[in-house]
Design a protein that fits this description.
Layout (H helix, E strand, L loop, with lengths): L2 H8 L7 H21 L5 E5 L5 H9 L4 E6 L2 H10 L4 E4 L12 E7 L8 H11 E13 L3 H14 L7 H8 L3 E9 L8 E9 L6
Parallel strand pairs: 1-2, 1-4, 2-3, 4-5
Antiparallel strand pairs: 5-7, 6-7
The structure holds S-adenosylmethionine (SAM).
Amino acid sequence: MSVKLWDFWADHYSRLWVQKVSLRPTREYVLREIEEIAHGRKMLLLDLGCGPGELLKELGEKCPQLELTGLDYSPRMLEISQQRNGHTKHILMDATDLDKLETMYDIIVCTHSLPYYRDPKKVFRNLSRLLTKKGRLIVGFASGNSVYDKVVLSAVKLTTGKANYPSDREFVEMVKEYFQVLKLNVINKRAFFMPRIAVYTLGKKMDSRE
Ligand SMILES: C[S@@+](CC[C@H](N)C(=O)[O-])C[C@H]1O[C@@H](n2cnc3c(N)ncnc32)[C@H](O)[C@@H]1O
């Protein structure tokens, strides 16, 4: 999907019908997961594909001790996030270029953004470099796990353009070189026409000599 299409959606994002059935329920779960991981501790968090910064705003309110950074390649999404989250650091960058980043993060979160990456394997290689040793990576996405999900998602693609919604097996295959799966949560379906939404919590795969 092109940056221009995301720029277009940025101004309508908080009113999209998928907020109620997909984006918000994912955010609610991710917020709880992050609260549990951070447990009041000061940590660095990166929201990859942060969109217009709704999660960052809620995190700022619920976990004020976290040092937050939002990254997105859509200038308009980032602009809206910046307006919403005045004190948060923002980075305008394509996820494929993460090799340009040096800062390490204790928590990296990536919701509903992975299906649009050109080279997801490269993204995960970089995320493993950017995640601290005991850090956590949380990835949420609509997964094409069944024929039904694939049919629904082909309709979603009409609004997002090119996308690849991985099945669980494909996702695990994609990340297994760098990460181990610690938890998988499937967001409760709020509507029959919704695809399955999987949220994975991953830890870094340690070298057996470490
Ligand atoms: C569906 S929105 C999700 C926004 C937010 N994470 C959420 O859960 O509501 C997808 C976001 O990913 C961003 N995105 C897609 N491909 C990207 C890429 N290659 N690099 C950085 N951001 C990307 C888009 O600009 C958009 O803001």
